[in-house]
Specification:
- The structure is a homohexamer of 149-residue chains.
- With 149 residues, chain A is of the alpha+beta class.
- The first copy, chain A, has one domain: Tetrahydropterin Synthase, Chain A, CATH 3.30.479.
- Chain A is built from five helices and five strands; from the N terminus they run αβαβαβααββ.
- A five-stranded mixed β-sheet of chain A has the order 3-1-2-4-5.
- The longest helix of chain A is centred in the middle third of the chain and has 16 residues.
- The N terminus of chain A is likely disordered.
- Chains A, B, C, D, E, F: It comes from Lutibacter oricola.
- Chains A, B, C, D, E, F: Its EC number is 4.1.2.50.
């Protein structure tokens, strides 16, 4: 009986996306070391402030796949939350992105690049059968999505 | 004159999505009756609590189609809201999903499965010319989308 | 120099309130065991559903006092967060308030009574020099504050 | 060294979407001048109120493209914000959409049509290499997306 | 037993506040008919736009009193919600405050004055033993509270 | 007629509070220079990170007074917004609070101390007939209010 009802609900076998939200608080500045200070100031404005500024980043990690018939889960959100904490928050939270995160020593920590890096940090820990998408809010008014499409 | 302006705005005939948000408050527990109590506890953790727990579910129902030239609507959101209330909220709101909702008597009421059921309850009441998508928040930190893509 | 600046900022010695938000997800039903089932249904409506329903409760715990000159804190929010987790969330989160929480076996778990109980659970763990106030959201549209004034 | 790290992060060359949120406050009424007053009232209900009503519109403008290797930006959000302000907010904010916005003199200012118009106002000011998408909230419970797909 | 536990929780008899949120969407303009058009424009700026603009008003109605021992309620929020709907929303929602609401024919519908009027409309329907407080958001960035203190 | 209605609404002459929300993004670290590095780390934990971290601060400035009969305002929120921008945001936004804000060179920039400083920066620019209150969110989960009571 259980199987019947379960299978019935999933006959069309469309994909479901499940998203987990986490957050981290970091300092950063936007700066391209190949440019003069003047050009950096002109392009990045107050985001180039030499002593850094910071944000509460809100991170949404979306995993796309089929619902498992035994669990009713796409993926266990407890696992997802742990992976985000150990691979991303541990590295970014209460840190200076430019100084404390190796990948940003030579890469500008724009919200676009942070989202791409989050994707690369998480991708190896999410099974290949799943798609993975990142949404990252730098402020409630500015956010990025990667990969898009 | 009216027609002209109207037609002009819609020449490209791209699709528009319109979304209506509603909410319901339900009790549930995650449990697979084919498993032992130990396995249920191991897999579902505190979500398996024998006496249930509960959530304020936030539901977004998205309907995708073309804008009607007479009304300027994709679909009347009053109709959409009434259908959600009569077909979904009436069944789920202030209820125990496991005990009071027939479809979950043999199906685990994970947020994934609830979203799929919401889709199935609404689909017959939305004309075939429209696409339908469901987004369901179990908490502000966990949500699903179905169908995805 | 440090002391001077610090003292200067605090000469007026007005109180500061600091608030920490946490959340828990619980099932409950409203029911007065001294009344008939009919009267319970009449008074509590769908909140009286015999199989329970549930909520995502958002809890704000406010502590009011003076800023410590050494730390710049009213109270350490890490301590506050730990106390809320061990004394309140451990007891309420992913539980059935009526069945799993002893205090509600003979007390109706309205949002008013839950807030009063949260206050009583936390008060012994917050030093007497502080005032303590509780704000509890049952839904984003209904919330209580205790004590008020 | 900088180049190496940068290139490494972008080898897959997937698209990134960046979104900027702005808002405007406008009066409007829904009305089709080709219909009788009775039909307008029947179809649009209280939204047809002859003296208008109004909303706080929340507007999200999404630009989709590749990350520039020099800046780490898809597009400069300062530019995006300025374009939204000069081309959309200047026209809609603290205005009556029916009376003060020429395009709505013969077109019903539903949230669908407003979103389509926002798209048309912004598209010429966003380089062709970018995709552009509009999300417009009429209330926190009703919103549209255009183009969808 | 029930009484004992109940009484125990309420021995200190402190007040509890319960708040209900509702919303309405209205058009308005700020204008003092005793002033010249020039002075109105100078003082109220774009809020003086002759054809009106509008807002999604979020209304919080707070009732302060003691918890009833039989119900565990300060006041029944269903009653509170109905009173707000019949006395306030019926009058303001999808209306032009200046033209459709009699009290604003000679009174400037600033968010301050709207909140005072909401208080006066509700006060006769809330028993004298309760205190009543109004919080009214004109936008998510501007809100008033009345009476304050 | 206008006067009559107006006076009628204000006969009780209770106070109204009006609040304006603004935000700023800053880097900071918690550190007491009179303590050893070990003690700083022990007390402030990851908030003591030597290279700083940061936040999106949400600031609410509340002004309490009587409604002016000519304008219907407690205070002009445009003035309030300008004062916040010139006296607070100019100083804090996209800055490092420890390094770029003189007052924090010898004072720990906890959210409590930032709120007190905001109050001191704004108080001289708000007429004495008004009360002034500050609410400052460091994150959506931690906020302070000053002065309290």
């Amino acid at each position: 009986m259980f199987n019947f009802a379960f299978i019935k609900l999933n006959t069309i076998k469309l994909k479901v996306a499940i998203t987990r939200k986490e957050h981290f608080n970091s300092a950063h500045r936007l700066h391209n070391p190949k440019w003069s200070n003047e050009k950096n100031k002109e392009i990045f404005g107050k985001c180039n402030n030499v002593n850094y500024h910071g944000h509460n980043y809100d991170l949404e990690v979306k995993v796309i796949g089929y619902v498992d018939e035994e669990t009713g889960y796409v993926i266990d959100t407890k696992y997802l939350s742990e992976i985000i904490k150990s691979k991303v928050l541990e590295k970014f939270d209460h840190k200076n992105l430019n100084l404390d995160v190796e990948e940003f020593k030579f890469l500008n920590p724009t919200v676009e690049n942070i989202a791409i890096l989050v994707f690369r940090l998480l991708r190896p820990h999410i099974e290949k059968k799943y798609e993975l998408k990142i949404k990252l809010y730098e402020t409630p008014r500015n956010f990025v999505e990667y990969p898009y499409e």
